[in-house]
Automatic annotation (TrEMBL):
Belongs to the NrfD family. InterPro entries: DsrP-like, NrfD-like. The chain crosses the membrane at residues 27-46, 66-85, 97-118, 147-166, 178-201, 221-242, 254-274, 300-320, 329-355, 375-396. It comes from Flavivirga jejuensis. It is a multi-pass membrane protein. This is Polysulfide reductase NrfD. Keywords: Cell membrane, Membrane, Transmembrane, Transmembrane helix. It is found in: Cell membrane. The keyword Transferase does not apply.
Length: 409
């Protein structure tokens, strides 16, 4: 009964916290609300007319939605780079950032599920994803494995931080024997969610562009570069606009993780390019289309030739210790690296896998305004959820939200 009272008090205090703030905070939330409403309007058009309003066709059946889904799975998995040092290795330098990282993971996973719903056409077909009711096809289908691991990882990233914050809200320390087993499990689960997503593509023998043994490891390398890069940018914003001060050494340690992962990712990219272009076969046509175009079709050239230089530039700058420790350079590198990997794991991975088709036909894909509107709406939803989670967590960690204090009042 007491826990229920504490929970009700926490909900009440959280609602009070997220509905009050500075003018900049309210403008930010209004901007995100506008983005979500725009996305809902675009989605209503898709519900009415079906997926015909998107740029996807029978030739290219995965587009902007699945591109963002694939990328965000990596962002969610990147939380493990903070969870493992904090909870398992007891590195106190990561302690300030770990709850922020897990909040980003929750937001990213919710966006992942939203993109899956958008790509399926509408929520009316979701019953197919329910075990025992729909056509779940477990364990044969890799899609069902993906659904299970994503929802399991979401559960872990909600329950562990909630328990810790619930204890801190009461002025108590969280018991390590309660959350450490879940934290250790989440480390392996984080690797699993991205490997399963990679296997989803890698197991399609008819798509040689994806049927690559290096795809799984490269998914992890790119995830551990882009995810922590985003965490660094978020931490920079938080320590600029809130009283929650993140120490420089925490950001520098995360920057080292980004640097190593970016270097490994670049090495793997070079290895893939060598495989595709040194001794090309007819299976290399997708790569040729992506990097050079085929038969006059070159819609993806501006995308990939933007991503590659940004990736190389960010990795080179981060490699130098002095440049990496300059926060202006670091934040710039993290931003362009995040954009570069978003392009590579989005348009640079998903769309070329369908081009050319099985009979050699080249049908290009360009997202429509409806797709872009829905996509921006889902990103706004993720940012909205993260803002709410972060504002509540920061309030508890700073001691501004306390159960005993409210009880006395």
């Amino acid at each position: 009964m007491r826990r229920l009272r504490v929970f009700r008090s926490l909900v009440k205090d959280s609602l009070d916290t997220i509905t009050h703030g500075s003018k900049k905070y309210h403008l930010w939330m209004a901007f995100l609300t506008f983005g979500m409403l725009t996305g809902m309007y675009c989605y209503s058009i898709q519900l009415e007319h079906g997926l015909s309003v998107t740029g996807m066709t029978d030739r290219v059946s995965w587009g902007l939605y699945i591109s963002n889904f694939t990328f965000l799975v990596g962002v969610a998995a990147a939380a493990v780079m903070l969870v493992m040092p904090t909870y398992v290795l007891k590195d106190i330098d990561f302690k300030q950032a770990v709850l922020i990282g897990e909040g980003l993971a929750v937001s990213a996973l919710i966006m992942c599920l939203a993109f899956v719903i958008a790509d399926m056409g509408g929520p009316s077909v979701l019953w197919h994803m329910i075990p025992g009711i729909g056509v779940f096809n477990f364990p044969n289908s890799m899609l069902t494995w993906d659904v299970l691991v994503l929802n399991g990882y979401l559960f872990l990233n909600i329950t562990i931080p909630f328990y810790i914050l619930f204890r801190h809200y009461q002025g108590k320390e969280a018991k390590s024997k309660v959350y450490i087993p879940g934290a250790i499990l989440s480390v392996f689960w984080a690797v699993g969610i991205h490997l399963v997503t990679a296997f989803l593509y890698q197991g399609l023998q008819a798509r040689p562009f994806w049927n690559n043994a290096l795809l799984g490891p490269r998914f992890l390398a790119s995830a551990f570069a882009a995810g922590p890069a985003l965490i660094i940018l978020v931490l920079a914003i938080i320590r600029s606009f809130t009283e929650f001060k993140i120490q420089d050494k925490t950001i520098k340690k995360i920057a080292m993780v980004v640097t190593v992962a970016a270097q490994i990712n670049l090495i793997m990219l070079i290895s893939e390019l060598f495989k595709e272009f040194y001794a090309p076969t007819h299976h290399s046509e997708s790569a040729y289309y992506l990097f050079f175009g085929l038969d006059g079709k070159d819609a993806l050239l501006p995308w990939i030739w933007t991503a590659i230089p940004l990736n190389v530039l960010a990795t080179v700058l981060l490699t130098f210790h002095k440049l990496r420790n300059n926060f202006k350079v670091l934040f710039f590198c993290c931003f362009i690296l995040f954009v570069a990997i978003w392009i590579e794991k989005g348009f640079g991975l998903i769309v070329p896998g369908f081009i050319p088709g099985p009979y050699g036909k080249i049908a290009e894909y360009t997202p429509t305004g409806i797709e872009i509107g829905v996509t921006l709406g889902i990103w706004a939803l993720g940012a909205f959820i993260f803002t709410i989670l972060a504002k509540t967590a920061i309030g508890i960690e700073l001691g501004e939200l306390k159960y005993k204090k409210n009880k006395e009042n």
